[in-house]
Specification:
The complex is a heterodimer of chains A (190) and B (811).
Chain A (H helix, E strand, L loop, with lengths): L2 H16 L3 H23 L10 H13 L6 H28 L23 H15 L1 H12 L4 H8 L3 H19 L4
Helix pairs in contact in A: 1-2, 1-4, 4-6, 5-6, 5-8, 6-8, 7-8
Chain B lengths: L2 H15 L5 H8 L4 H26 L20 E2 L2 E10 L2 E8 L7 E7 L1 H4 L1 H15 L9 E6 L5 E6 L4 E2 H8 L3 H20 L12 E3 L5 E3 L4 H4 L20 H4 L6 H17 L10 H10 L12 H6 L4 H8 L2 H9 L11 H12 L11 H10 L2 H47 L3 H4 L11 H16 L3 H17 L3 H17 L5 H17 L3 H18 L5 H13 L4 H13 L8 H15 L3 H16 L8 H14 L3 H22 L2 H15 L4 H8 L8 H18 L2 H18 L4 H17 L3 H19 L7 H9 L2
Antiparallel strand pairs in B: 1-2, 2-3, 3-4, 4-6, 5-6, 7-8, 8-9
Helix pairs in contact in B: 1-3, 7-10, 7-15, 10-14, 14-15, 16-29, 17-20, 17-24, 17-28, 17-29, 17-30, 17-32, 17-34, 19-20, 20-21, 20-22, 21-22, 22-23, 23-24, 24-25, 25-26, 26-27, 26-28, 27-28, 28-29, 30-31, 30-32, 32-33, 33-34, 34-35, 35-36
The chains are: A mainly alpha (190), B mainly alpha (811).
């Protein structure tokens, strides 16, 4: 089997996942997780003393090494970026969980999106956000996807709109409600 | 979607449209019969208000998107003694530490320095190790445009420090903006930057992180490059720990973004970005803050926007010109020069900073510049002028030695790895890693500060014996998975150990498990192949093949391919390998429609190597359409392209040959992240560049020399041959001869059953000797070459172009 066939599998898995087959995500994650962790690990330790985890580099690396599929097709693009955001979420939460068991501060930190400036101020935010997003997915998966792209990949509203094939105003509206909902979850009034 | 939620959403937005004082009553009127909805909307509206308040508070305390505050390290404040210096005040933060103004405090003499202090664990092991060695080198860099590194060491508390000239000046962009410097003035400044970088490159020091923040201009207009060479000491002096999404490596070359090593050509790219911004005020690749733009840039090697288009009104004002005037200045030669520096393919950029400087000087003097947009025709014109035999020999060397050994080894093994991992490692990972149980609570984890996949594997290996002791087949199967995962993750020695253990275990199993045994042998072959131990890999392959022949003869196709492939790498005679490929053709693999074409691509190459140009080309041409795929060709097509290029050259059709070679190399360059180390690629590109007449070949060679591990004979021959080619053209003839003779010796001792390699080396040697005026020795090389060619090309000897050329040399 050639490398292209493996790439075809990944495209297929991405499609399945976006069609709502969650087990496809697990499969994708297993294929790519090790790689991503290595890359993140390499970024953090061996090669890069600066501990920056650049989604740009990781996303591009992921594509080059594994996907091979054409990103020009918008459907693939959407799957691909959503997938990356999802994996970033996993890595961050995972990392924070590991660190908190060791009573150390996380080295990979939640990025701030200008829309949710208070996010990340508390150490538990990483976990709480992860849990909250899982709940939000069940209520309104589009909003959860939007938040993922903006928070974990740092995409702007325009880019998010482009990736998900929505209008910018839809993205803005969705964000407003999603932020209110998240604020209620993560910062409940006493 | 839940109708409740939909209603809530609708009302949320429509309520917000009402004037604030009327919202509650309006909402009540809309939800008279629906108190649950009303409560939910109210609650969300309250949250929306709270969200606004919290966001405002967060900005007020300075915590916004651009701030980075992940640093958790305590660094010394001012007034501290570090080495022989005492700090006076903080000059700035950034990179991996802080910079202070400091004075010499040990009473030796008066000295004011800029002291950069770094906590070692932030710097990383690599830095600490090279710190001591590199310091001498860097301290020797004395140039009017470079801040000198004066001193460096380790403070008593373990911090690392570097002491540099303290320079009073402004950062480059600020300087240009305040003076509203026009284009000519900016180019003059830029030329000073080039002087500095060129000087360092001549001393074999690369910067790796050129950006305006590293460039100061003193009051009298002298440019000073900061942090020079610390980048060679430090691989990647990047930012602090921060919100990662917002750090865009704005000045980095595409190869840097992909995580490869920096070289002089990456510096040229960064200089290109700097120049582009200095001239137009805009970033060449779109919006610098955009993730998607950033990703596109890396993935698609997005071309920079035309400088003239990027000019804005404000930018023009800052350059003391009207927008139209600035636009006109940005067209023509200036644009060509900048764009050439920004080529995503390093081989297409200027080969050296000196060339950049020279072209800019020509521009200023109104002379025609040398830069031309890259095109195949340009390269082709150069080819026609060249001695075609030299080109021909190398094309085939490139084909025979590089593709067969590097691209294809990794390709078949890695491709297998991807496929297998998807099936088997996914299973394994799910059970031991992704799930919350065993690994999380294992005491092993407490020791590590980051999750490493190989740690998981180590721990799993320990447990395996106990867990599956009574089921040797299952244990062997698991060791197979583990072993190969190790290998693919870059630890082949550990991998081999597991695989061999697996085979031992399997011997204990009741009943036969041919599938598992064969799997272990196949992976053993790949693992040894990764290490360059091709002869040992071949042994493993043969075992696997033997097993398949007995237990499942219809599926030996893949195994035959691997064995044949490894045999070639290990120096076995070519006809034997060809026989195996042909046998494989008769037993095609299921679910693999490409298999026959791939076999034919291999067979075609072997035919060529045995001198049968006609048949070889025919077979390759037949294989090509299937390998082209829909739009994006598979990597197996690379040897086909090389071989066809060779064929075109033999017929004197040079532009065709160049086109094919370019296509092949573009493919290799694009896929290399998966298949070939950057050093190997650089060496191959260097050979090609030497051919095309690009002096950039030499620095490229120097960058990788000494870094290429060569266990296997075929690898050593390749390195020597390519290095010899580059040296012959642009380096030292003595070094070229050394390399070629070394290649010859290796071939004669260890690859003697593949004489065609020897022919090529003799041809290159002959050419080198002729060019040095040593006609007698050249003739002797030709004689030897002819003898070997007769062995290699058998019945095709008489008509073979190599043979003909060498005979000419004897007349």
């Amino acid at each position: 089997m050639s490398a292209a066939s493996a790439a075809g599998d990944i495209t297929q898995l991405l499609r399945q996942w976006s069609d709502g087959r969650d087990e496809a995500f697990r499969e994708l994650l297993s294929i790519t997780y090790g790689r991503l962790r290595l890359m993140a690990g390499a970024s953090m330790r061996r090669e890069r003393p600066d501990h920056t985890l650049q989604p740009t580099a990781l996303v591009a690396e992921l594509y080059l090494r594994l996907a091979g599929a054409k990103l020009a097709d918008w459907k693939d693009r959407e799957h691909f970026y959503s997938f990356c955001a999802r994996v970033m979420r996993w890595i961050l939460t995972d990392h924070a969980r590991a660190r908190s068991r060791e009573k150390r501060r996380a080295e990979l930190v939640l990025p701030l999106t200008p829309d949710i400036r208070w996010l990340g101020e508390r150490e538990e935010d990483v976990f709480d956000l992860d849990r909250a997003l899982s709940r939000l997915e069940e209520i309104d998966s589009r909003k959860a996807r939007i938040v993922e792209l903006r928070v974990y990949l740092g995409c702007t509203a325009e880019e998010t709109a482009g990736i998900l094939n929505l209008s910018k105003s839809t993205v803005d509206r969705d964000m407003r409600l999603a932020c209110a909902w998240l604020c209620r979850e993560l910062r409940p009034e006493k | 979607m839940d109708p409740f939620w939909q209603r809530v959403e609708e009302l949320f937005h429509s309520t917000l449209q009402q004037p604030e004082s009327e919202r509650e009553s309006w909402l009540a009127s809309q939800t008279g019969f629906d108190p649950a909805v009303r409560e939910e909307v109210l609650s969300l509206l309250a949250a929306d208000r709270r969200h606004g308040q919290l966001s405002a508070q967060a900005s007020a305390t300075g915590r916004d998107a651009a701030a980075g505050d992940g640093s958790q390290v305590e660094l010394p404040g001012p007034g501290l003694r570090i080495g022989p210096y005492r700090t006076e005040r903080l000059l700035g933060c950034g990179g991996m530490g802080r910079v202070y103004l400091a004075r010499r405090a040990d009473g030796q003499f008066e000295q004011t320095v800029a002291l950069k202090v770094m906590a070692p664990h932030l710097a990383g092991e690599e830095f600490v190790r090279s710190f001591r060695n590199e310091r001498q080198l860097l301290a020797a860099l004395a140039h009017p445009n470079i801040t000198r590194l004066l001193d460096g060491g380790v403070a008593s508390n373990g911090d690392l420090y570097l002491a540099m000239d303290y320079i009073e000046g402004q950062l480059l962009d600020r300087y240009c903006a305040e003076l509203k410097l026009p284009v000519e003035g900016r180019i003059r400044l830029f030329l000073q930057v080039c002087e500095a970088v060129e000087f360092a490159h001549r001393n074999l020091i690369i910067h790796g992180d050129l950006k305006p923040a590293n460039i100061l201009v003193t009051a009298d207009g002298t440019v000073k490059l900061l942090d020079f060479g610390t980048a060679k000491v430090l691989r990647n002096p990047g930012g602090q720990v921060t919100q990662f999404a917002l750090l865009t490596p704005r000045y980095a070359s595409p190869e840097q973004l992909r995580g490869e090593l920096v070289n002089t050509l990456s510096d040229i790219f960064s200089l290109g970005v700097i120049l582009y911004e200095m001239l137009t005020g805009a970033w060449p690749f779109g919006d610098p803050k955009s993730t998607v733009d950033g990703v596109d840039r890396v993935l698609h090697g997005r071309a920079p926007g035309a400088p003239a288009q990027a000019v804005s009104q404000d930018a023009a004002a800052e350059r003391s010109a009207s927008r139209e005037r600035l636009r006109r200045q940005m067209e023509g030669d200036l644009s060509t020069i900048v764009l050439k520096m920004l080529e995503s393919e390093p081989a297409h950029r200027y080969g050296s900073v000196r060339e950049v400087k020279e072209d800019l000087e020509r521009l200023r003097q109104g002379r025609p510049v040398h830069a031309r947009p890259h095109s195949a025709w340009y390269a082709a014109r150069k080819f026609v002028a060249r001695n075609w035999l030299a080109v021909l020999a190398t094309a085939l060397s490139v084909a025979a030695l590089s593709t067969l050994t590097i691209v294809s080894v990794y390709e078949s093994a890695q491709a297998r790895a991807q496929a297998l991992r998807a099936e088997r490692v996914a299973e394994f990972v799910k059970h031991t890693f992704v799930s919350a149980s065993s690994y999380w609570d294992s005491p092993l984890r407490a020791k590590h500060d980051a999750i490493q996949f190989s740690d998981v594997l180590d721990s799993a290996c320990d447990r395996l014996g106990k867990a599956l002791g009574d089921d040797p087949a299952a244990e062997a199967d698991m060791r197979d998975t583990l072993g190969f995962t190790y290998a693919v993750l870059g630890e082949p020695a550990k991998g081999e150990k597991q695989l061999l253990l697996g085979l031992q275990t399997l011997a204990r199993a009741r009943g036969r498990s041919p599938r598992i045994a064969a799997g272990l042998y196949v992976h053993l072959c790949d693992t040894r192949g990764f290490q360059g131990r091709y002869a040992d890999a071949l042994t493993a392959c043969r075992e696997a093949l033997a097993i398949w022949r007995v237990s499942d003869p219809s599926s030996i196709g893949g195994s035959l391919h691997d064995t044949a492939f490894m045999a070639v790498n290990a120096g076995e005679p070519l006809p034997d390998a060809e026989r195996m490929y042909r046998e494989a053709l008769r037993v095609p693999r299921r679910n693999d429609p490409l298999f026959p074409s791939i076999m034919n691509s291999r067979i075609g190459m072997l035919r060529l190597r045995q001198g049968d140009l006609v048949e070889g080309e025919r077979v390759l041409r037949d294989a090509e359409p299937a390998l082209r795929g829909n739009g994006d060709p598979f990597t197996e097509i690379v040897p086909v392209l090389y071989a066809r290029a060779f064929g075109e050259e033999v017929r004197g059709r040079y532009p065709e040959a160049v086109r094919l070679m370019s296509e092949a190399l573009d493919l290799v360059a694009r896929r290399r992240a998966a298949f070939m180390g950057p050093d190997e690629l650089a060496l191959q590109l260097a050979a090609y560049e030497a051919l095309a007449g690009n002096p950039g070949a030499l620095p490229r060679l120097r960058n990788v020399e000494g870094r290429l591990p060569s266990v296997a004979a075929v690898d050593r021959i390749r390195h020597d041959l390519f290095a010899g080619i580059v040296e012959a053209r642009y380096g030292s003839k003595a070094a070229a001869e050394r390399h070629l003779r070394s290649a010859l010796a290796t071939q004669q001792k260890q690859m003697s059953r593949q004489p065609d390699i020897g022919v090529e080396i003799y041809v290159r040697l002959m050419e080198l000797l002729r060019a040095s005026g040593r006609e007698q020795e050249a003739a002797e090389a030709a004689r030897q070459g002819l003898r070997v060619a007769a062995l290699a090309y058998g019945s095709c000897f008489a008509g073979h172009p190599f043979a003909i050329e060498m005979q000419k040399s004897l007349q």
